């Protein structure tokens, strides 16, 4: 029914390796079982907290690899704003977050908007009464997946066959992240 892939990497050892995330996506797209299940133009990246940092970093290095990204309670340098090109970004943060400053998300989104102007492809949601632990709230956000699906990488070919396949990227996967 939903031929898209949402990549939600979990950080191990407090070190982000964006190349490994992109390699995992490549591996999934190269798998014959998944070729007709996952639309290669609908690959989305999201992460919470340190995963939010990793989402920002990975997107800054590989903006053309994802249809949209959703960093949650993460941060990056606003000076990276030009690294994202036209990549759709919806950032989320708790306004009372004491782990990762909400102003980090605000400043980055503001910098991106200065380059692109006001657009639905650049969003920021601040939950006024929330602290750091907003992941469950975000991933239950009514419009999140509809927003993701409005964005697609142009030029990717895809023919759906209607199969359903579950992919696990944690051990016992032969190449664990």
Biggest sheet record: 5 strands, parallel
Indicate the overall shape. globular
Radius of gyration: 16 Å
- How would you describe the oligomerization state of the chains in this entry? single chain
Which class in CATH terms? Alpha Beta
What is the element string, with H for helices and E for strands? EHEHEEHEHH
**Can you identify the CATH superfamily?**
Alpha/Beta hydrolase fold, catalytic domain
Total separate domains: 1
- Which percent band covers the strand fraction? 5-15%
Q: How far apart, in Å, are the first and last alpha carbons?
A: 28 Å
Helix count from the secondary structure assignment: 5
Structural class computed from helices and strand pairing: alpha/beta
Estimate the mean pLDDT confidence: 85
CATH topology: Rossmann fold
Taking strands numbered 1, 2, ... along the chain, how are they ordered across the largest sheet? 1-2-3-4-5
Explain this structure to me?
This protein is an alpha/beta fold and 177 residues long. The protein has one domain: Alpha/Beta hydrolase fold, catalytic domain (Rossmann fold), CATH 3.40.50. 29% of the residues lie in helices and 15% in strands. It is built from five helices and five strands, in the order βαβαββαβαα. The protein has a five-stranded parallel sheet. Strand 1, helix 1 and strand 2 form a beta-alpha-beta unit. Helix 1 packs across helix 2. It is globular and about 45 Å long. The C terminus is likely disordered.
């Amino acid at each position: 029914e939903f031929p898209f892939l949402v990549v939600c990497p979990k950080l191990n050892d407090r070190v982000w390796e964006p190349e490994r995330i992109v390699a995992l996506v490549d591996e999934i797209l190269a798998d014959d079982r998944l070729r007709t299940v996952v639309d290669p133009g609908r690959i989305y990246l999201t992460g919470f907290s340190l995963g939010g940092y990793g989402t920002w970093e990975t997107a800054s290095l590989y903006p053309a690899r994802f249809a949209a990204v959703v960093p949650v309670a993460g941060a990056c340098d606003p000076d990276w704003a030009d690294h994202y090109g036209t990549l759709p970004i919806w950032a989320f943060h708790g306004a009372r977050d004491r782990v990762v400053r909400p102003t980090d998300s605000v400043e980055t989104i503001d910098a991106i908007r200065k380059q692109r102007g006001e657009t639905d492809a650049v969003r920021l949601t601040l939950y006024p009464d929330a602290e750091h632990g907003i992941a469950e709230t975000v991933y239950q956000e009514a419009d999140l997946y509809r927003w993701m699906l409005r964005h697609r990488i142009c030029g990717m070919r895809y023919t759906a066959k209607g199969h359903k396949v579950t992919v696990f990227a944690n051990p016992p996967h032969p190449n664990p992240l």
